[in-house]
């Protein structure tokens, strides 16, 4: 009998501009957060498969940190992100020029068992960014990418 695949739970946020999923990871908050707060590791957990390389940034992100990535989504481009929310071992979020936010929230369920919720939040972006996201039919794609990122985060975190 084969094991069933690892899946994250897609969450209904009540807002079509916020896509979220969650997963339970058998690791410590600090182990998971060490991956999330190191921009050089983001390619390992990228469920969108758009990050091609880390090009700049500190070894550990904190509030206000900036980090750059080489990306590919139809075309090659570079993007600079800024950490806009941060609470060590509990919360990290960043945004770029488009102003949508990628957020990770960690909640300890029991020692060594952490619930991680990832969200893509475009609820407060400028009108032009909303137009671009709708024109690209980004929301369904982003929902899948968020769910896949969490599965990758679980795999990486539990293999440390």
How many H/I helices? Answer: 3
| End-to-end separation | 26 Å
Query: Averaging pLDDT over every residue, what do you get?
Result: 93
Order of helices and strands: EEHEEEEEEHH
**Share in β-strands:** 35-45%
Poorly predicted segments: none
Rg computed from alpha carbons, rounded to a whole number of angstroms = 15 Å
Q: Would you tell me which CATH topology applies? A: Alpha-D-Glucose-1,6-Bisphosphate, Chain A, domain 4
Describe the structure.
- It is a single chain.
- The chain has 160 residues and is α+β, with helices and mostly antiparallel strands.
- It has one domain (9-155): START domain (Alpha-D-Glucose-1,6-Bisphosphate, Chain A, domain 4, 2-Layer Sandwich), CATH 3.30.530.
- 24% of the residues lie in helices and 39% in strands.
- The chain is built from three helices and eight strands; from the N terminus they run ββαββββββαα.
- The protein has helices at residues 29-36, 127-135, 138-158, and strands at residues 9-11, 18-25, 51-56, 66-73, 75-87, 91-95, 101-110, 113-121.
- It has an eight-stranded antiparallel β-sheet with strand order 1-2-8-7-6-5-4-3.
- A hairpin with a 3-residue loop joins strand 5 (75-87) and strand 6.
- It is globular.
């Amino acid at each position: 009998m084969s094991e069933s695949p690892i899946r994250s739970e897609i969450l209904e946020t009540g807002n079509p501009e916020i896509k979220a999923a969650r997963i339970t990871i058998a690791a410590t908050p600090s182990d998971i957060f060490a991956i999330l707060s190191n921009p050089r590791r983001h390619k390992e957990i990228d469920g969108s498969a758009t990050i091609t390389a880390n090009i700049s940034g500190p070894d550990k992100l904190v509030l206000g940190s900036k980090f750059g990535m080489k990306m590919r989504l139809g075309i090659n481009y570079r993007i600079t992100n800024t950490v806009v929310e941060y609470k060590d071992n509990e919360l990290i979020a960043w945004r770029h020029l488009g102003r949508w936010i990628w957020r990770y929230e960690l909640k300890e369920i029991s020692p060594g068992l952490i619930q991680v919720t990832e969200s893509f939040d475009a609820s407060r972006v400028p009108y032009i960014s909303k137009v671009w996201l709708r024109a690209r039919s980004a929301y369904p794609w982003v929902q899948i990418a968020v769910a896949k990122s969490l599965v990758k985060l679980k795999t990486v975190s539990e293999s440390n």
